[in-house]
Amino acid sequence: xxxxxxxxxxxxxxxxxxxxxxxxxxxxxxxxxxxxxxxxxxxxxxxxxxxxxxxxxxxxxxxxxxxxxxxxxxxxxxxxxxxxxxxxxxxxxxxxxxxxxxxxxxxxxxxxxxxxxxxxxxxxxxxxxxxxxxxxxxxxxxxxxxxxxxxxxxxxxxxxxxxxxxxxxxxxxxxxxxxxxxxxxxxxxxxxxxxxxxxxxxxxxxxxxxxxxxxxxxxxxxxxxxxxxxxxxxxxxxxxxxxxxxxxxxxxxxxxxxxxxxxxxxxxxxxxxxxxxxxxxxxxxxxxxxxxxxxxxxxxxxxxxxxxxxxxxxxxxxxxxxxxxxxxxxxxxxxxxxxxxxxxxxxxxxxxxxxxxxxxxxxxxxxxxxxxxxxxxxxxxxxxxxxxxxxxxxxxxxxxxxxxxxxxxxxxxxxxxxxxxxxxxxxxxxxxxxxxxxxxx
Length: 441
Known about the structure:
There is one protein chain. This protein has helices at residues 25-36, 88-96, 114-127, 138-142, 144-150, 164-169, 188-191, 217-220, 230-244, 258-274, 293-302, 319-322, 328-340, 361-373, 390-398, 401-404, 411-414, 423-438, and strands spanning 4-9, 12-14, 18-19, 40-45, 61-62, 65-67, 82-84, 103-106, 133-135, 155-156, 200-202, 205-206, 226-227, 248-251, 279-281, 304-312, 348-354, 377-382. By secondary structure, it is of the alpha/beta class. The chain folds into two domains: 1-186, Rossmann fold, CATH 3.40.50; 199-441, TIM Barrel (Alpha-Beta Barrel).
């Protein structure tokens, strides 16, 4: 089937956004699928950083942004609301520079980023009024009715790109006639559509075998944990390095070290055979229980520079929310193993969750003190209630606003609804983390 398709990664509206190795990997799968089905694809990334943007040595940096009207729900928040990404004139210029598409496909991510998605669709529609707009991705799966309300007239696809029956049953123009992808398919057709990038994505698997109450991975990836072929992963990273000069790679897996790193070690060996070198980073939390000496030695040998462990909390009262993934003893063991492999404390970060049901600021700070005692960096993460998860359902019973507007899911806003939490206590937690991390080397 031959047709012209435009794929758009939308703007983001929020109080904060930093390019910590961000890539719309879901859209890369879409581009690959469209090309495999014979489509002529153009790609516009509204979050593309300028070519002359300052960048840290690890490839991260600041997104361009501008002031954006603050939604009424955030009226009491003394923070500036912004639209992150390229300017509207830049987007319009890019749209005018490509042939009129037969269909426009727009991705979606965080539920509370809906204003940025709506603004993107508005501009695209003004430039290309004849093309149907199809919205897919995380928000389309989690909150389809809210996306439909924000972008009236758009087609909302709430399935995955790996579900052929769902694609066929969608009856969405152009989409419903496409052949679905396999998780094993290469992303090379999509990576070829990228221009200069500051870093690259690495993905060895899809899904997660665990069921944490705050995470929607099981809903977004209903087929569970699926490893991707190691040679395919190596081929993708070799392309990014050899053709685009990428030196920093971030792993996007939900469960990179699943089964004691069995599949990860296969991928690492494939990368070595392909001659891929550089710095590797793990912004998604690594599962502590699978941090074995063999795995950490393999990561160090491969060139990993940034480790992030998904500790969340070791408190017994919160084990049902965190899936009982680990304990203080387990975290201490994982940190010891990492240090024995040669990782310094400054390269090891530990996510500590704040905002779990009934959790107090004192409990969060106690966990942070424990993490700091291991001479590694503590990374506080404030809960953002995710629809279709057990934690969301419990919170929605107490805070009906969560069902009324996805803007209430924003972590910066939601934490202030909880007893004992407000903007001042949040800042105190952040200040404590900064003070503790300053002494880590």
